[in-house]
């Protein structure tokens, strides 16, 4: 099932990404990208830009996975806190994580500019506003950790409309961004098609196997694509090479949208 078929719809789903047929024969490409969210289409874009032939396969319609349900905020702040990442992976990894996210935001900014993608991209700050029950020590520790890692962050003492009464403190992460995710994906998909990449919807990948010098990607209809390389960009991996899915648990996140006083 694709999230497009779910009962609820996000704000971004009124913009169709692109119409695409399902895979109806056997094909060949340098690279098969499985999954057409922001990860899959971005990787496909980088590959075609470097002259590789690319086929993108998605089990549902193009670009209707989690990317179409995000808050659309391109964040450098980490949901699970940098201090947690440092404790499990060390400082160097946490620093690399921050640098890679900043580089990704800059790359999205450059691509929407280069490809004239009208996706409401703009740079904004991110604020971590604590809930009333958040211990003060958590902000102190995260602030200290970010400063140690060289991550720009400001300890801000000014109330926002998000603060509970009597609270004023937040951590401000500058240089983040927001955009309209499905408009951005639509632009990426058009750029891919102009460059000769093929996009197939409703083509659920069921197996990825090495056969002699090829990798054979088989979809549920029985059709195959042969390639030299395969990128699995399905959010949770569908192959058994990396058993991440055995460690994942489903969560539902709610996003509340409202007009702020004076906004
Ligand atoms: C409520 C919410 C808020 C979020 N807020 C933020 C935020 O503020 N900032 C942020 O950075 N991130 C946020 N995220 C996370 C972000 O949206 C995701 O990390 C990101 O969109 C994942 O992109 P993706 O391309 O990896 O996956 P997806 O967009 O889910 O794309 C994966 C695609 O793979 C396809 N697929 C799956 N299995 C198969 C198969 N077997 N064969 C073929 N295709 C397959 C799916 O149909 C799907 O289209 C949020 C997510 C949610 C749900």
Report the sheet-strand fraction: 15-25%
Q: Tell me, briefly, the overall form.
A: globular
Q: Which CATH architecture of the domain at 1-72 and 182-263?
A: 3-Layer(bba) Sandwich
Please state the oligomeric state of the protein chains shown. Answer: single chain
Strand order of the largest sheet: 7-2-1-10-9-8
Q: N-to-C SSE series? A: EHEEHHEHEEHEEEE
Helix content: 25-40%
Count of distinct strands: 10
Catalogue the unreliable spans: none
Largest sheet: 6 strands, mixed
The CATH topology of the domain at 1-72 and 182-263 is what? FAD/NAD(P)-binding domain
- Small ligands present: flavin-adenine dinucleotide
- Structural class computed from helices and strand pairing: alpha/beta
- The end-to-end span amounts to 38 Å
User: What would the average pLDDT be, to the nearest integer?
Assistant: 93
- For the record, the CATH class of the domain at 1-72 and 182-263 is Alpha Beta
- Rg over CA atoms: 21 Å
The CATH superfamily of the domain at 1-72 and 182-263 turns out to be FAD/NAD(P)-binding domain
Q: What is the count of DSSP helices, taking H or I runs of 4+ residues?
A: 5
What does it look like?
This protein is about 25% helix and about 25% strand. It is an alpha/beta fold and about 260 residues long. The protein has a 6-stranded mixed beta sheet, with helices on one face. Strands 3, 4, 5 and 6 form a 4-stranded antiparallel beta sheet that branches. The protein has a domain at about 1-70 and about 180-263: FAD/NAD(P)-binding domain (3-Layer(bba) Sandwich). The mean pLDDT is about 95. The protein has 5 helices and 10 strands. A hairpin with a 4-residue loop joins strand 9 and strand 10 (about 225-230). It is globular and about 65 Å long. Bound molecules: flavin-adenine dinucleotide (FAD). Flavin-adenine dinucleotide (FAD) binds next to helix 1 and strand 3.
């Amino acid at each position: 099932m694709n999230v497009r078929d779910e009962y609820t719809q996000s704000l971004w789903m009124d913009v169709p990404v692109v119409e695409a047929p399902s895979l109806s024969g056997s094909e060949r490409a340098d690279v098969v990208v499985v999954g057409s969210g922001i990860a899959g289409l971005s990787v496909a874009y980088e590959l075609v830009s470097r002259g590789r032939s690319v086929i993108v396969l998605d089990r549902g319609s193009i670009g209707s996975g989690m990317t179409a349900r995000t808050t659309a905020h391109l964040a450098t702040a980490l949901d699970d806190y940098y201090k947690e990442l440092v404790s499990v992976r060390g400082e160097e990894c946490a620093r690399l994580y921050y640098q890679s996210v900043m580089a990704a935001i800059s790359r999205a900014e450059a691509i929407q500019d280069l490809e004239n993608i009208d996706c409401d991209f703009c740079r904004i700050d991110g604020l971590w506003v604590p809930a009333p029950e958040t211990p003060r020590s958590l902000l102190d520790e995260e602030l200290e950790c970010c400063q140690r890692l060289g991550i720009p962050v400001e300890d801000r003492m000014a109330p926002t409309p998000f603060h509970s009464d009597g609270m004023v403190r937040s951590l401000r992460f500058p240089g983040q961004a927001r955009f309209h995710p499905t408009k951005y994906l639509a632009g990426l998909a058009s750029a891919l098609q102009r460059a000769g990449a093929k996009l197939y919807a409703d083509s659920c990948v069921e197996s990825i196997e090495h056969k002699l010098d090829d990798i054979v990607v088989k979809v549920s209809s029985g059709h195959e694509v042969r390639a030299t390389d395969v990128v699995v960009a399905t959010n949770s991996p569908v192959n058994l090479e990396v058993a991440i899915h055995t460690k994942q648990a489903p969560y539902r996140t709610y996003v509340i949208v409202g007009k702020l006083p004076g906004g």
